[in-house]
């Protein structure tokens, strides 16, 4: 039964004979090289595995060398038979092959044994066939399992490549959409600012041109009056000189209208200075996704030993407990405080100033976390946080800051609710620090822990930065 099973495993599914030059397909099945080539030769275009029907766009085959070696080893056991069925003879001595030398790996006769193999480990031929058939079967079974693992690994790698390509396409499309929105916004804002410039400039130029025309008219009047006066002064006869003299003098009482100093510089409200572009930047925040969030701290959640700034953007550890109501939402043991803002959808980004603090914890948490007593700040408990702490791993907080040569002074936190990601960055250069991947099903809050003072070495606050 074992030999029949082995023969079946070593049989080509096409010619139903023992493999000749066995080759392997990507699906893991084996065929004789000539059999699969002849089968595919008749098929135009894509081809398939004759056994499992998996389609292939390329007619690639790989030599199954290990399988070929097994077949060759099997053939070594089936030495040249005589005309009498089941009888095998030594080509050198003409004697029946009754033994198998394990050292030389060949079937031998009694004369071979007595002349060369007495010190070797020899077996009866039938016993050797049974032993090595079992070994071959085990080798084939092992290799088939390895092939199955390799094919599975190949499929997983192909799936991974496809997944990466899909993600790259998604990021590429998202990048294109976001920049198209920004380009469109900036283009429209540019055209609007240029149109406003033209309107304001036209108004100023028209006023200046009107002033210039008035000046030309006054110059013309002055030139006429000067000519009249010069002409009258050339008259010698008194009666003629004084004729209508008062009317002439009245006509010459021309005062030049001074429109004021005309500046060659555009007014500030047109030039705008840097503030015009600051306003554009502020307006563009509505176009960017995610828009940098401006957070504030929720004093109702702050541990009694935490001190919050008046504008609720800074928090540090105080030296004593404050007299505050112990409501359910307040942390009583751990020195945490939550943001007043929460998120249940969308993508969001905010930044936290760390300064030179040697101890801190920052991240997001579920709304329903336990706020009383001691707890482990892990995702299993609803905390997606990183920190700079001596006992990070004990608290199941990723130890990502300690190994850094330069500790971040400003931390960026990115939340993609639907994408199930919380990522942390060194906001100075936006270098990636760590990403949690999970599924979010309830409201999430930004969470902050300035940690205890550490004998005065950790007195700096955590600061919520706004843009």
Task: Detail the topology: elements first, then pairings.
Elements (H helix, E strand, L loop, with lengths): L1 H8 L12 E3 L5 E3 H9 L5 E2 L6 E2 L5 E2 L1 H13 L21 E3 L4 E3 L1 H8 L4 E3 H109 L4 H5 L2 H7 L16 H4 L1 H12 L21 E3 L5 E4 L19 E2 L8 E7 L6 E7 L16 E6 L21 E7 L4 E6 L4 E7 L6 E6 L12 E4 L2
Antiparallel strand pairs: 1-2, 1-5, 3-4, 6-7, 6-8, 9-10, 10-19, 11-18, 12-15, 12-19, 13-14, 13-18, 15-16, 16-17
Overview of the molecule:
With 467 residues, the chain is an alpha+beta fold. The chain has helices spanning 2-9, 33-41, 65-77, 110-117, 125-233, 238-242, 245-251, 268-271, 273-284, and strands spanning 22-24, 30-32, 47-48, 55-56, 62-63, 99-101, 106-108, 122-124, 306-308, 314-317, 337-338, 347-353, 360-366, 383-388, 410-416, 421-426, 431-437, 444-449, 462-465. A hairpin with a 4-residue loop joins strand 6 and strand 7 (106-108). The longest helix is centred in the middle third of the chain and has 109 residues, at 125-233. The chain is elongated, with a radius of gyration of 47 Å. Residues 79-85 have low confidence and may be disordered.
Attribute tags:
17% strand, alpha+beta, 467 residues
Enumerate the strands of the largest sheet in spatial order, edge to edge or round the barrel.
9-10-19-12-15-16-17
Mean pLDDT over the full residue set: 84
The total count of strands amounts to 19
Radius of gyration: 47 Å
Low-confidence stretches: 79-85
Q: From N to C, what is the helix and strand string?
A: HEEHEEEHEEHEHHHHHEEEEEEEEEEE
Shape: elongated
Beta-strand percentage? 15-25%
Distance between the termini: 79 Å
